From TrEMBL:
Single Gene Ontology BP annotation: recombinational repair
Lineage: Eukaryota, Viridiplantae, Streptophyta, Embryophyta, Tracheophyta
Domain of life according to the entry: Eukaryota
Organism: Trifolium pratense (Red clover)
Entries under InterPro entries matching the protein: Ribosomal_Su5_D2-typ_SF, Ribsml_uS5_D2-typ_fold_subgr
Name of the protein in question: DNA repair protein RadA
């Protein structure tokens, strides 16, 4: 059981399906740019969105694409998931 809070400097943009898959939402690029301007250091997005996002204005943020919720957890908590 994972009982750790998500760090305050990580944002998530997308929709989680019933099977744990991540889906894109509308205006993805605008949303990621807004998150970058707000000072987040990382933004987790659906893998499909990672491919279509431009890099302009995203120099200070790491955009990480994930396929499902398991990928998100492994990305945010890599050390915790290695222990289990």
């Amino acid at each position: 059981c994972l009982e750790l809070p998500i760090p305050n400097d990580i944002a998530f943009i997308g929709e989680i399906g019933l099977g744990g898959e991540l889906r894109m939402v509308t205006r993805m690029e605008k949303r990621v740019n807004t998150v970058a301007k707000l000072g987040y250091r990382m933004c987790v997005v659906p893998k499909a969105a990672e491919k279509v996002l431009g890099t302009e204005g995203l120099e200070n943020i790491k955009v990480v694409g994930c396929r499902n919720l398991k990928d998100v957890i492994n990305t945010i908590f890599p050390d915790v998931m290695k222990r289990s």
